[in-house]
Amino acid sequence: MALALGADGATVALVARDRAKLLSVREEVEAAAGRAAVFEADVCDEGRILELETQVSRELGRVQILINNAGINIRKNLVDFSLSEWRTVVDTNLTSVFLMCRAFVPHMRGGGYGRIINMTSIMSHVSLPGRTAYSSSKTALLGLTRALAQELAADGITVNGISPGPYATEMNTALIENPEANAQFLANVPVGRWGKPEEIGSLARFLCSEEAGYITGTDLLIDGGWCAR
């Protein structure tokens, strides 16, 4: 998403905890003739988000697009969860979105244009064993998306979810590297393959365009047909 929007001329504020990865993505954005700045932060840390709000605005100007993409999944049965693990999943997938939106929505108001994209999941719509915390957080995030879209509609700010299905990302490395589990998983995907991250970039580019100004408060499945079964 950073690469797609950067290639379209957006100045991208890259936010994460891993500085090395941030610098690597910045190089990719700049190699595509885009502009990006790096901000090391934990998006679950309220105090750090307040600092981030000031830093981003000071260095890059008014924020017009916010993509909430931090996510974590702990796979285990509900009875085996510790409260700490549960809170880690919910705070990362849901509370971080509340904190980021609360910080940056005021910067979007007054310009007649704004875009918020929350990374939901097919687990906002369906679920699997061992996904109680993840599904709960992502379903709640879909509710946040719908409510916030109504709050901000009069300001020209759209709020939408993108629900990826199975994508070849680090979160799914264990499945991808297990031939038997990989085959079983892909048997549930009508298109028969893992998604490509750049396909999500293309969808984000459209949602941030003027042409998508009438799309708000919804969730777009990009799942290879998983939820259509």
How would a crystallographer describe the biggest sheet?
4 strands, parallel
The mean pLDDT is 94
- Strand arrangement within the widest β-sheet reads 3-4-5-6
- Strand residue content: 5-15%
Structural class: alpha/beta
Helix content estimate: 40-55%
Order of helices and strands: HEHEHEHEHEHHHE
Which overall shape is indicated by the principal axes computed on the Cα atoms? globular
Counting H and I runs of at least 4 residues, what is the number of helices?
8
Q: Calculate the terminal CA-CA distance, rounded to whole Å.
A: 27 Å
How many whole angstroms does the radius of gyration measure? 18 Å
Describe this structure in words.
A four-stranded parallel β-sheet has the order 3-4-5-6, sandwiched between helices. A two-stranded parallel sheet has the order 1-2. 32% of the residues are buried. Helix content is 45%, strand content 15%. The protein is of the alpha/beta class and 229 residues long. The protein has helices at 2-7, 19-31, 46-60, 83-108, 132-152, 173-176, 179-186, 197-207; strands spanning 11-16, 35-40, 65-68, 114-119, 157-164, 219-222. The chain is built from eight helices and six strands; from the N terminus they run H-E-H-E-H-E-H-E-H-E-H-H-H-E.
